[in-house]
């Protein structure tokens, strides 16, 4: 009962997706909607997986520097598994609020501010325990410290002197250490001091009556007298009396100089009504976070002015009224809500067979061992092969699965129990800059070099890569010749994943560019001169291919031969085969030259009546010798590659060909293939 009762201030799990990890939130309010449902106003916490890698790397780097500078850090040797799981316990607080249905609550958890004096193993030993130390701003994509740093040192803290021995005198000059602002042993009595303060209030009231801006803010005499009775007027009067050695006549003359009475104002009078409204609105949104109040609502006010106004505002009736209203609203709001345990099956759950413990593909016994050896590890996290329940995890095409315990760990902590190869390959702050650059270069090359296959599914369809044109500048071309020893293009071409040191090449080119002026580079011609080409063509004349031409009967308009008519009536397979293969006959001698058939009278059935083939309504169709097809560019296949095996190697093919065919296929390969196809 108590486990399912959720109150304001509890840290809870929220489920927004059946496959994603739980959201971790803190309940701020419980509100009942018009339709009777309960909504929870919560504060958002973010995991490491929800924040960009650049911010995570900066945070880890800062934490490592602080740990190295700290002298009181507790050193604990953690294994790779513990370090991996400790990252799942770290959260990032935010100032973002959202409203979620209370029915999506899936349990309680505990979130605490990171304690530097406590061992990190304490967070791993406790279930459903998390910690945070930084604040994440989703809009600005920044990470800030949640608490101020303690300033240590003589610049920020006082040096405590040694304790004086008994009877030892303090030789320090007290006048330099402190300033006296009031003397309780003054010659004036308390009655005389009170009378002087009344005179100071009267002078302040008269000064407000003469001031136009004050008359607008305090239109009545009562409000002016109340404003003149504030602490700033009394402090100024007592300070004036002390400076004049408690001489009442001289102190009163200072309160009323020749220019007019002295007017003392505090922050309550300096602020306008609109500024006071902005302050109350900001206080409702940010609380006592005066830095955010100044940044977002009152940037023209100083931080000292805002803090001083806040403590004066707490003494007003406005603060008392708002406090009563908030107390009444808190009484009307829900304090707690009961959410029953969620028992509905998860859509990612893989059903078992006949209630038996689920295994990989339902295999049991020896057959299970045989299949397990083929498919490998079952659980992607703990690598177990047996579990009472399995859950599909990851993309559907990957067909990954988790066991019951690892699925619960994934939902609560947003990761896998055991570190995977992907996690090991990720960049960390401890890696050198050169190694990080190499890994980034390798991942980029591997990503660009992976062929994209289209499976026919709309989900797997990707856009064609955008073509680009690489225009090499003259300086780059010259650098290839000047910096050959440093560049080593052939070695670099065989090692595409190793980055090229461009800085060294630029430095060498800057030192040796003067060599170009004295010794101009000779660029090798990539094209032979025209005279060499003409001489080669005279010695090796090209063979004219034997083009197959149509017979003269097709060009004669008086011929009575018809083209092969299309079969409109009979569904026999004879119409779909060559005429030389009908009835098992093969006229190989005349097959190469026979391209036209004599049309015999055929009977076509039209609406139950016989129709002679000589009628004009008969449609004829030509059967071309070679049917030319043009492939649609949308149906073009992806890029492919050919791997030569022992059966398709050059020596094996060369042994099958005669000398004549080998020479013909090497010089005029397409003509030879065309001749083989035609007959």
Question: How would you describe the overall organization of this protein?
Answer:
With 679 residues, the chain is an alpha+beta fold. Among the domains are: 5-145, Roll (SH3 type barrels), CATH 2.30.30; 190-265, Hormone receptor fold (Irregular); 349-425, no CATH class. Strands 2-3-4-5-7-6 form a six-stranded mixed barrel. A three-stranded antiparallel beta sheet has the order 10-11-12. Strands 1-9 form a two-stranded antiparallel ribbon. The longest helix has 21 residues, at 190-210. It starts with a strand and ends with a helix. The model is unreliable at 354-376, 427-463 and 553-623 (pLDDT under 50). Belongs to the metastasis-associated protein family. It comes from Gallus gallus (Chicken). Residues 443-458 have a biased composition (Polar residues). Residues 148-259 form the ELM2 domain.
């Amino acid at each position: 009962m108590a486990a399912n009762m959720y109150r304001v201030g509890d840290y809870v799990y929220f489920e927004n997706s059946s496959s994603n990890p739980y959201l971790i939130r803190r309940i701020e309010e419980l509100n009942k909607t018009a339709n009777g449902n309960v909504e929870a106003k919560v504060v958002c916490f973010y995991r490491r997986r929800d924040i960009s890698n650049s911010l995570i790397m900066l945070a880890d780097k800062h934490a490592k520097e602080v740990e190295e500078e700290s002298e009181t850090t507790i050193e604990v040797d953690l294994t790779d598994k513990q370090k991996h799981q400790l990252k799942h316990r770290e959260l990032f607080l935010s100032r973002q609020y959202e409203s979620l249905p209370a029915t999506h609550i899936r349990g309680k958890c505990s979130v605490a501010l990171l304690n530097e004096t406590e061992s990190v193993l304490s967070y791993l030993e406790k279930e459903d325990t998390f910690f945070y130390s930084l604040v994440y701003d989703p809009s600005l994509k920044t990470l800030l410290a949640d608490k101020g740093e303690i300033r240590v040192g003589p610049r920020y803290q006082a040096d405590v002197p040694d304790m004086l021995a008994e009877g030892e005198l303090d030789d320090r000059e007290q006048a330099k250490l402190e300033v006296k602002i009031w003397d309780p042993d003054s010659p004036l009595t308390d009655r005389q001091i009170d009378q002087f303060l009344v005179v100071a209030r009267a002078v302040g009231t008269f000064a407000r009556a003469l001031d136009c801006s004050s008359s607008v803010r305090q239109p009545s005499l009562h409000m002016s007298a109340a404003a003149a009775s504030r602490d700033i007027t009394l402090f100024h009067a007592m300070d004036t009396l002390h400076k004049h050695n408690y001489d009442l006549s001289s102190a009163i003359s200072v309160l009323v100089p020749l220019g007019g009475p002295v007017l003392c104002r505090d922050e309550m009078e300096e602020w306008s009504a609109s500024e006071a409204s902005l302050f109350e609105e900001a206080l409702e949104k940010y609380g006592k976070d005066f830095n955010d109040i100044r940044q977002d609502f009152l940037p023209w006010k100083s931080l000292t002015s805002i803090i001083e106004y806040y403590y004066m505002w707490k003494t007003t009736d406005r603060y008392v009224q708002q406090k009563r209203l908030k107390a009444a609203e808190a009484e009307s709001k829900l304090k707690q809500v009961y959410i029953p345990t969620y028992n509905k099956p998860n859509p990612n759950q893989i059903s078992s067979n006949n209630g038996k413990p689920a295994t990989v593909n339902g295999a049991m016994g020896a057959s299970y061992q045989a299949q397990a050896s083929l498919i490998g590890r079952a659980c992607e996290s703990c690598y177990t092969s047996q579990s009472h329940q399995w859950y599909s995890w990851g993309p559907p095409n990957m067909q990954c699965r988790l066991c019951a315990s690892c699925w619960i760990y994934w939902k609560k902590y947003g990761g896998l129990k055991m570190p995977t190869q992907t996690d090991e390959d990720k960049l960390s702050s401890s890696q050198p800059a050169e190694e990080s650059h190499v890994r980034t270069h390798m991942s980029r090359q591997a990503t660009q070099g992976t062929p994209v296959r289209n499976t026919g599914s709309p989900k797997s369809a990707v856009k064609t890569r955008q073509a680009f044109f690489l225009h090499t500048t003259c300086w780059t071309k010259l650098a290839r010749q000047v910096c050959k020893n440093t560049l080593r293009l052939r070695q670099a071409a065989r090692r595409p994943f190793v980055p090229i040191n461009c800085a060294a090449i630029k430095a060498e080119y800057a030192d040796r560019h003067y060599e170009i002026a004295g010794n101009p580079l000779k660029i090798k011609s990539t094209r032979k001169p025209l005279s060499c080409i003409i001489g080669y063509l005279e010695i090796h004349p090209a063979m004219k291919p034997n083009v197959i031409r149509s017979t003269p009967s097709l060009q004669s308009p008086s011929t009575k031969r018809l083209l092969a008519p299309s079969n409109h009536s009979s569904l026999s397979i004879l119409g779909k085969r060559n005429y030389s293969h009908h009835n098992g006959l093969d006229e190989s001698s005349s097959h190469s030259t026979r391209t036209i058939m004599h049309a015999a009278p055929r009977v076509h059935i039209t609406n139950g009546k016989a129709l002679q083939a000589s009628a004009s309504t008969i449609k004829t169709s030509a059967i071309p010798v070679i049917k030319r097809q043009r492939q649609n560019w949308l149906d073009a296949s992806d890029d492919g590659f050919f791997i030569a095996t022992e059966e398709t190697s050059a020596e094996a093919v060369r042994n099958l060909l005669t000398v004549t065919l080998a020479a013909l296929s090497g010089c005029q390969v397409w003509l030879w293939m065309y001749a083989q196809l035609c007959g």
